[in-house]
Amino acid sequence: MNKSLKIVLLLLFMLNSGHISAQKFGYIDSEYILNKHPDYKTVQEELKKLSDQWKKEAQSLDQEIKELNTQLKAEEVLLTEEMYQKRLEEIKAKQKASQEFNSRIFGIDGMYYQKQAELLQPLQSKIYDAIERVSRRNNLAVLFDKAAGPSAIIYTDPRHDYSEFVLEELGIEDNK
């Protein structure tokens, strides 16, 4: 009796574990999807324009500092110690303002990254919604992002790549 009970329990466990191994996994390449999306190119162009404008402003500040330094060196022998120190303080104040500008624009929480997040958010929402629909339609238990780094994905079988399905869901044709 004890032996038959073990066999029945073993059979029940094997039947029950069949559901666990039947889960489907897949992956996408979000970088590939983004690069194929026409809205992404528009976002990139707008960010480049803003970035170029801010870089010009930063270069202008740096050029002004360079000119003040050159002017100070040229007039150094003509200035009193007090006048020299005053000009040095002006230059240091300009350098500090330049650093603050660069930090405010291009720093970790700078305006550039805020604008990037603002412009990409609607696009990322569309892509996420498409990913969710593809995952549900294909009964995927888990969908990895190959582009997310650092990735734990070492090898991927192209049969499990759902990037094209997501592009199709977004209405984007692949023009290789």
From TrEMBL:
Coiled coil: 44-78
Pfam families linked to this entry: OmpH (PF03938)
InterPro entries found in the cross-reference section: Chaperone_Skp (IPR005632), Skp_dom_sf (IPR024930)
Keyword terms: Coiled coil, Signal
Gene3D superfamilies: Skp domain (3.30.910.20)
Segment forming the signal sequence: 1-22
Family the entry assigns: Belongs to the Skp family.
Protein known as: OmpH family outer membrane protein
Organism: Algoriphagus aquatilis
Lineage: Bacteria, Pseudomonadati, Bacteroidota, Cytophagia, Cytophagales
